[in-house]
Amino acid sequence: MAPPRHDGTAPDPRRKRGFERAATLVSAHLRAPAEKRGFAEARLLTHWADIVGADIAEIAVPLRIGYGRGFGGTLVLLTTGANAPILEMRGTEIVERVNACYGYRAVSRVQVTQTAPTGFAEGRVAFAGPAKAAERTPDPERLAAATEGLDEIEDEGLRAALSALAQKVVAR
After folding, report:
1. pLDDT value at 137 more than 90
2. 29 with 105, same domain?
3. In degrees to the nearest 10, what's the CA dihedral of 58, 63, 69, 72?
4. What is the pLDDT of residue 133?
């Protein structure tokens, strides 16, 4: 048991258990918003990429689960327009993976929406895709090694194109 504080008050009951996982500390705060959107398991929201795979998680986010008549709910996914056919095609795979997370047949179908939940004007779907090569800064040593000998090329356009190519390759 933890000793009393210097001011004579009882110690915080949470402190006497030692270290706790961050997931257990925030789970109570995540449960209410997740249940409001139909998610009985907040893990589906917090571990989306682990459940459905990185390729699907890059192009879609779970919006809500709606339960109507019949067995199993409808998982609504938010995506951009070009990715909707991919998600429709992989719908059964997504259903299987989500149901494996729940442990029972919680979802029976997937519905894909291509708009933000707030409407057309207010919200825009922005997914964190791979960083662009132009945004990365290349390692100066590797760039110097890659561009070695380019100053001997007489054609200015070819030299500039090869230099830009070397910079993009080294940035990756």
Report:
1. no
2. yes
3. 40
4. 45
